[in-house]
Design a protein that fits this description.
With about 375 residues, the protein is α/β, with parallel strands linked by helices. It has 15 helices and 10 strands. It has helices spanning about 50, 55-65, 90-95, 115-120, 125-135, 140-150, 165-185, 195-210, 230-245, 245-260, 275-290, 305-320, 325-335, 340-350, 355-365, and strands at about 5-10, 20-25, 35-40, 70-75, 80, 100-105, 110, 155, 160-165, 215-225.
Length: about 375
């Protein structure tokens, strides 16, 4: 069987040493060639990449790959992994698709409904209009869409592998819906992040489509390879603010970036969790300045030292929150020399039973 897993990219990257993984330059229209297959050849929507993101590559595969028996989509930083945590090989893909209908990312369980989460980060009307179009064009699919959109599950990243006829059927459904949605919403006023509305909504629609057709989905781990350039830049800027003890500047910069890119705190972007730690440091320093006039940044640690310090604290706090703290944890708390404000912020972040927050805080502060 001919199996191709297309690796979506907009930049040069270390291509996997396996001919099954085919780099595909998305949004290639008007851009310098990277030396890979480009999504602006044949029948394509490459010029719409600012709205469709990696879906311009998905469209290209649908319309132009007429030879492959099995096709898949991954990203230059994200790959489906087998149970050993290793990228799939051709033989594994063939075997799995003899037993399952498709390979996908593991189903995400959100802390809120998909509709609520979308409204928090995007214009929820775009999602509602998508539902309206489904109701009109695919009325048999609408009840399930309406049910799932108010539940708390979704797939992630538009990452999947299927036999080509099934992939084509999915694309025909998806792009038919989006062609109509695009006529009904006004996204030209959005910033570059929010314009990628179809890339965002399609992650959820894959879940709807798989569920609707009762497909046997083999859900896989997604391996993250390296940080985004935007994440690295953000961490460096925050490190500079911390070195200058500029909490006001750090918070202002963080909020500006988060407004522009609400995905910066997602695991796919913040793969080390450092940006969440930065947010925690800012909150801690603000509380300390208000109570004592000084802050954790007076220690003049390196950025890496701050990350290690707060990750150690968070590990201890997590164990306290579930009643599994150890004598070593108590000893480590004393050595960290952290303020009650630092402990408070950490407990607030990791204690799932909010009614126990005060009790856990008292217990930790007694052990410091």
């Amino acid at each position: 069987m001919l199996v191709k897993i297309y690796t979506m990219t907009h930049k040069k990257f270390d291509v996997p040493n396996d001919p099954m993984y085919v780099p595909l330059q998305v949004g290639a229209e008007g851009k310098e060639p990277l030396g890979y297959v480009r999504d602006n050849t044949g029948e394509n929507i490459s010029a719409l990449n600012c709205y469709y993101s990696e879906l311009t590559g998905v469209y290209w595969i649908w319309k132009n790959d007429t030879e492959s028996d099995i096709v898949g989509v991954c990203h230059y930083r994200r790959y489906l992994l087998n149970e050993k945590g290793v990228m799939f090989r051709k033989e594994e893909i063939e075997k799995l698709l003899s037993e399952y209908d498709c390979l996908t990312s593991r189903l995400l369980t959100l802390d809120f409904s998909y509709h609520y989460g979308f409204s928090d980060n995007h214009n929820v009307r775009d999602l509602d209009v998508t539902g309206e179009v489904i109701r009109e064009k695919y009325p048999e699919d609408y009840p399930l869409f309406e049910k799932l959109v108010h539940e708390n599950h979704t797939y992630f990243g538009n990452i999947c592998v299927m036999k080509k006829p099934l992939f084509d059927a999915y694309c025909a459904w998806l792009f038919d819906i989006f062609a109509e949605v695009r006529k009904r919403i006004n996204i030209d006023s959005y910033d570059s992040y929010h314009k990628r509305v179809f890339g965002f909504v399609s992650e959820f629609l894959l879940y709807v489509w798989v569920t609707k057709h009762k497909l046997r989905a083999y859900e896989c781990m997604v391996g993250m390879i390296g940080e985004k350039a935007e994440t690295k830049e953000m961490k460096q800027r925050l490190a500079d603010y911390f070195a200058e003890k500029d909490i006001v500047g750090a918070k202002q910069y963080f909020m500006e970036m988060y407004t522009k890119r609400p995905d910066v705190l997602m695991e796919a972007s913040d793969i080390t969790g450092d940006l969440r730690i930065c947010m925690q440091i800012i909150a801690t320093a603000e509380r300390e300045l208000a109570t004592t006039g000084g802050s954790i940044l007076d220690r003049s640690c390196t950025f890496e030292d701050y990350m290690h310090l707060f990750k150690t604290l968070n590990g201890i706090v997590r164990r306290y929150c579930v009643g599994r703290q150890t004598t070593k944890d108590k000893e480590m708390l004393a050595k960290l020399h952290l303020s009650e404000e630092a402990v408070y912020v950490s407990v607030l972040a990791f204690c799932k039973e909010k009614e126990k927050t005060a009790e856990i805080l008292n217990q930790i502060n007694m052990d410091i």
